[in-house]
Amino acid sequence: MKTVFPPLVALVLIGSALLAHGAGTSLKPLPNAPMAPAFELDGPDGNTYRLEDLLGRPIVVNFWATWCPPCRAEMPSMQRAWEQLRDEDILFLAINVGEDARAIERFLKEVPVSFPLPMDVDSNVAQSWPMRGLPTTFVVDPRGRLVYEAAGELDWDDPGLRDLVRALKVAPGSTGQPPSDAVEPGPDDANARQASQQPSVSAASSAAADPD
């Protein structure tokens, strides 16, 4: 029987071939940090995963499939990173594209991982995210914005990757980037210092922000 792939699956197959040697790929900032598309997916564990319910913490969202060699290759290091970061309220999700629970269960017998594996059986979620192939990884900040992406296999044993995700918990605006008003001191700083002397809630905030 001839197999006919829908357009997305064909794209994923081509993308996976191109990304197969992507080990050493790094997370890259996404311009303008767009909002992550919503999803509601069931997992082989019987749980339902809704993005809106998971926000408030950094989330690593990986798109993968069991037949994808680089996807399989990066899973063990993802598991090790998950074991290090889950107690820091950082979540890993690996969204399986186009397969069912039986395929995932077979995979887990060979490569046991404990982070959630929501199933995008009809590939609708994958089509709504800005991905080009498998594997693709996104990092969502606590506000639900896409701040990093990586096309290809990641090595989560790299502490630099984990530190980028950790930084989203404490960075101003939860973007992992410097705040937009982080500029060199100027004349306006005098006004800020004067305001910091006023006994008010806003003054307390200004004083806390003033290095002096």
Question: How would you characterize the overall build of this protein?
Answer:
- The chain is α/β, with parallel strands linked by helices.
- It is 36% helix and 16% strand.
- The radius of gyration is 21 Å and the shape is globular.
- It starts with 6 loop residues before the first helix and ends with a helix.
Helices and strands, with pairings:
Blueprint: H1 7-19, E1 28-29, E2 40-42, E3 48-50, H2 51-54, E4 59-64, H3 69-85, E5 91-97, H4 101-110, E6 119-120, H5 124-128, E7 136-140, E8 146-151, H6 159-167, H7 188-196, H8 201-209
Parallel strand pairs: 4-5, 5-6
Antiparallel strand pairs: 1-8, 2-3, 4-7, 7-8
Describe what is shown at a glance.
With 212 residues, the chain is an alpha/beta fold.
Write the element-wise H/E pattern from the N-terminal end onward. HEEEHEHEHEHEEHHH
- Oligomeric description of these chains: single chain
Could you describe the largest sheet, including whether it forms a barrel?
6 strands, mixed
- Output mean pLDDT: 79
Widest sheet: strand ordering: 1-8-7-4-5-6
How many DSSP H or I helices? 8
Label the overall shape: globular
Beta-strand portion reads 15-25%
Number of distinct beta strands: 8
- Distance between the amino and carboxyl termini: 74 Å
pLDDT under 50 segments (min length 5)? Answer: 1-7, 10-14, 16-23, 172-212
Structural class: alpha/beta
Question: From the alpha-carbon coordinates, what is the Rg to the nearest angstrom?
Answer: 21 Å
Q: Estimate the helix proportion, in percent.
A: 25-40%
